């Protein structure tokens, strides 16, 4: 039996490794068009900022690791160009030699990931304009900074990658302006939380322009509609990603309403023996089963493992996600899980909200304020979502909410949680308890 996997980053290698563990006799090959595999894309901003000094730390595994540990053959710089599911054949191009050949599969995993979406701005194809997706992008940005020593940069977009890049370009002594087309920053937060975050960022002296549309990218500045030009010797476009679905749709794989690949809870597509996982698939919110496109490493690893298990006869089933996200911005941590107030209303819930700012631990041990906004359903009292902005301890509070929401806890459960307490970590009444106390 032969398994062919396309893509060797988070999802593809997870799928292949799990399949090999379940069935060591399986003949597995992964085709990857890039030269880097199984890397931590999430660490790339910190390589650009210099906190991670060596790219090898983010790309710790090479094909020989997978060959020795799992007997998986990874062919890098090999691009799958088409798939014929009638004859179960992939056509592959060796990007180094230019040779093209076909390979047979019994089962196929599409782990083709996602690619940055670049808006059609005039001048965006110049050599000082970058996206950040893979190690090569990060190397190119670092090379550019080392060669040209830019003094100014514009980041387009205020998702987590754009804001992580704000911190890491600043670490290179670059004066950064962040430009956002929408009237609010960070689409994963409600407007009030986004405004709070914006205030914290601008209080640190950074410029964020909202409602701002770039019309041209020039050599050392960008032009905007209705605003003065902004100096930009370097431009980072961080305006989201789109799933890589071309191969899939050409072979007859169905896409979902988010335009990513539609899979069942075993990661199987509409075609027998064809599975998909990672950033190329549509998942669903566990709260209300709404289809979503949530391209995150956490989900890519999970769905990859499920695909590898399912295709070798295992019983793993995907249970959905909460769109949970977290990122660092200087001394701040920003996190969200589940539905925002806006999303909950749009999904038809009658919503109650609790919003407070409390210290994460006693002031005498350096406690700092943390703002939590939680959303629940007025009738069932079920907790639907939370957004947290603070310094220390945001990560553990958001994971408390993740767990509560996953097990359909109610507002009244919050106060009764027996959370760990000692002064270095929290107050006797934690901000999470307080949220439970102030819900209507
Ligand atoms: P990808 O990483 O996109 O890999 C797909 C691979 O398939 C690519 O290497 C591509 O070259 C290959 N491929 C595509 N088509 C073909 C073809 N025809 N033939 C051969 N090969 C092909 N997620 C988090 O959860 N937390 C974070 O903090 C976080 N931070 C991030 C920061 C940055 C800067 C970036 C870029 C991403 C971050 N992510 C984060 C997202 C995370 O990196 C991705 O969700 C994850 O890499 C997805 O893995 P994947 O294997 O599904 O897809």
TrEMBL record:
<dbReference type="Pfam" id="PF02852">
    <property type="entry name" value="Pyr_redox_dim"/>
</dbReference>
<keyword id="KW-0676">Redox-active center</keyword>
<keyword id="KW-0560">Oxidoreductase</keyword>
<protein>
    <submittedName>
        <fullName>NADPH-dependent 2,4-dienoyl-CoA reductase, sulfur reductase</fullName>
    </submittedName>
</protein>
<dbReference type="GO" id="GO:0016491">
    <property type="term" value="F:oxidoreductase activity"/>
</dbReference>
<dbReference type="InterPro" id="IPR004099">
    <property type="entry name" value="Pyr_nucl-diS_OxRdtase_dimer"/>
</dbReference>
<feature type="domain" description="Pyridine nucleotide-disulphide oxidoreductase dimerisation">
    <location>
        <begin position="330"/>
        <end position="428"/>
    </location>
</feature>
<comment type="similarity">
    <text>Belongs to the class-III pyridine nucleotide-disulfide oxidoreductase family.</text>
</comment>
<dbReference type="InterPro" id="IPR036188">
    <property type="entry name" value="FAD/NAD-bd_sf"/>
</dbReference>
<keyword id="KW-0274">FAD</keyword>
<dbReference type="InterPro" id="IPR016156">
    <property type="entry name" value="FAD/NAD-linked_Rdtase_dimer_sf"/>
</dbReference>
<dbReference type="Pfam" id="PF07992">
    <property type="entry name" value="Pyr_redox_2"/>
</dbReference>
<dbReference type="InterPro" id="IPR050260">
    <property type="entry name" value="FAD-bd_OxRdtase"/>
</dbReference>
<keyword id="KW-0285">Flavoprotein</keyword>
<dbReference type="InterPro" id="IPR023753">
    <property type="entry name" value="FAD/NAD-binding_dom"/>
</dbReference>
<feature type="domain" description="FAD/NAD(P)-binding">
    <location>
        <begin position="1"/>
        <end position="282"/>
    </location>
</feature>
């Amino acid at each position: 039996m032969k398994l062919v996997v396309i893509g060797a980053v988070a999802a593809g290698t997870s799928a292949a490794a799990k399949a090999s563990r379940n069935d060591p006799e399986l003949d597995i090959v992964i085709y990857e068009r890039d030269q880097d595999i199984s890397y931590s894309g999430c660490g790339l901003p910190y390589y650009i900022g210099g906190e991670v000094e060596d790219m090898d730390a983010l790309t710790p595994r090479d094909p020989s690791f997978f060959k020795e540990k799992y007997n998986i053959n990874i062919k890098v710089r090999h691009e799958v160009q088409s798939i014929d599911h009638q004859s179960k054949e992939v056509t592959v191009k060796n990007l180094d030699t230019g040779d093209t050949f076909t390979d047979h599969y019994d089962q196929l995993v599409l782990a083709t990931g996602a690619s940055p979406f670049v808006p059609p701005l005039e001048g965006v194809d110049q050599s000082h304009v970058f996206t950040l997706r893979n190690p090569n992008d990060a190397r190119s940005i670092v090379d550019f900074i080392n060669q040209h020593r830019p003094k100014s940069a514009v980041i387009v977009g205020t998702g987590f990658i754009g804001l992580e890049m704000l911190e890491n370009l600043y670490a290179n002594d670059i004066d950064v302006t962040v430009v956002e087309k929408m009237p609010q920053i960070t689409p994963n937060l409600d407007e009030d939380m986004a405004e709070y975050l914006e205030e914290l960022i601008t209080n640190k002296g950074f410029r964020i322009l909202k409602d701002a549309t770039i019309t041209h990218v020039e050599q050392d500045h960008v032009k905007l509609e209705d605003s003065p030009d902004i100096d930009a010797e370097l431009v980072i476009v961080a305006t989201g990603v789109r799933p890589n679905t071309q191969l899939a749709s050409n072979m007859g794989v169905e896409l979902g309403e988010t335009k990513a690949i539609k899979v069942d809870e075993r990661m199987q597509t509409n075609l027998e023996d064809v599975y998909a996982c990672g950033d190329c698939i549509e998942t669903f919110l566990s709260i209300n089963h709404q289809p979503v496109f949530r391209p995150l490493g956490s989900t890519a690893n999970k769905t990859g493992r499920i695909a590898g298990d399912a295709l070798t006869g295992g019983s793993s089933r995907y249970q959905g996600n909460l769109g949970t996200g977290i990122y660092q911005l200087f001394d701040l941590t920003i996190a969200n899980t589940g539905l925002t107030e806006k999303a909950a209303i749009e999904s038809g819930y009658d919503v109650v909200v609790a919003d407070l700012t409390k210290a994460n631990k006693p002031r005498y041990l350096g406690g700092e304020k943390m703002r939590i906004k939680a959303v629940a359903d007025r009738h069932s009292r079920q907790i639907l979502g939370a957004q947290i902005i603070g310094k220390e301890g945001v990560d553990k509070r958001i994971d408390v909410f993740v767990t509560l929401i996953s097990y359909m806890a109610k507002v009244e459960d919050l106060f009764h949680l027996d959370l760990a307490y000692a002064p270095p970590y929290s107050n006797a009444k934690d901000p999470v308890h307080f949220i439970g106390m102030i819900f209507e």
